[in-house]
Amino acid sequence: MESMNIPIISEFGETTSSYAGYCSSCGRIHVFSGTDCHPFASELMELLSSKRCIAPDSGSFSNRHTLSTDSLFGELRGKMFGVMECLATDGQTIRLKAFSGQFNRLWLVEGWAPPLFDVNAWTRLNTKSEPVIKKLGKDSMACSDDPIRKKRLLQERKVLSQDLMKELHGLYRLTSFRGQTASLSDLIPGNTGIPNGTGDCCAPKLLNFAATHNLLPIGISEFYWGRENKSGSRRHLHFYTPCTEKCGLILGFLLCGLEELYVRQRL
Question: What SS3 class is residue 218?
Answer without folding.
Answer: strand
